[in-house]
Amino acid sequence: MSSSSSTSSSSSSSSSRSKFLDSGFVIGQKDVTRILILFIGLTASCLVLYKTAYPMQRLDVNNLSSVLASPSPPLLNLNSSEISTEITTKPKISFKDILENASTKNNTVIITTLNQAWAEPNSLFDLFLESFRIGQGTQQLLKHVVVVCLDPKAFERCSQLHTHCYQLESSETDFSGEKVYNTPDYLKMMWRRIELLTQVLEMGFNFIFTDADIMWLRDPFPRLYPDGDFQMACDRFFGNPFDSDNWVNGGFTYVRSNNRSIEFYKFWHRSRLNYPELHDQDVFNRIKHEPYISEIGVQMRFFDTVYFGGFCQTSRDINLVCTMHANCCIGLEKKLHDLNLVLDDWRNYLSLSEHVQNTTWSAPMKCLED
């Protein structure tokens, strides 16, 4: 009796649990279904909104930087180094493009060369740029100056201070240090300069070449001769601009680009092979009377030191001087000391209200010392 009752009770209880579980399972399935439908609906809505806000773009591998800059966040299967290289690498500007950017309306550029020793802070390059800034009529000429850098450090410093800088590649010689006059590296540097200037002429540009130890105090263009292919400064000028026996100095030259000047520069550069121990200026003195110069027909003129002076022969008139060169001076420290004196004299001159009758320069001083 009790056993049967117990069994009946147990069956009833088991049946009730089964109904409860079945009922619970059915309810769970419905809830899951509702949740899935709601999730799908929300996902679809989000996708619609995302596409509206960020339209899909095709990846242009040739213009990767523009894609990276766009507002959408496309998924790129590229490694970070590839992206970084594409974005940060700037194309190197060719020498011809730099010359074109710096040239005047008549295709003339002002060129100087620079190495690390002369590019250091408070060294010659700083004085060179300062002279343009305080000279009369020279400020606007700075935009026509192209600085040819002979080593990476010089290029780095130049790029911080000036617009038109070009690094000359040279694997044979390290030009970064101070090159003492007439040493083997100095000779290589001078001949590399002549080679470069030949290329400038071949590209169709006229140029003024100026050493960086020349202070530009006035605009020299009005003092250039109107009819000379090749015009050169002098250590000593004897009064006749046509006389090739003036003691020339290659630190300041004005050259017009034409067939005569191009052939002359090529001949000048080739002549180094006949005089391997001489620099460009001394070789010029050896070849200037050769018959081939007459055959070329190049017209030469030589500048008066009144306008283009230097420590070999200072300008006699500060009211007329255009440039002052630290020539006849060996040693960077001596040049720096005496060129600072030149700029001091010039600043004092600019502060005067009256015309200067007699010119007395404070320099050279240290450059006169042995």
UniProtKB/TrEMBL annotation:
Transmembrane annotation, as ranges: 32-50
Domain Nucleotide-diphospho-sugar transferase: 141-339
Keywords: Membrane, Transmembrane, Transmembrane helix
Pfam families from the UniProt entry: Nucleotid_trans
Superkingdom of the organism of origin: Eukaryota
Keyword Ligase in annotation: no
PANTHER family listed in its UniProt record: (RAPE) HYPOTHETICAL PROTEIN, EXPRESSED PROTEIN-RELATED
Full protein name: Nucleotide-diphospho-sugar transferase domain-containing protein
Organism the protein comes from: Thlaspi arvense
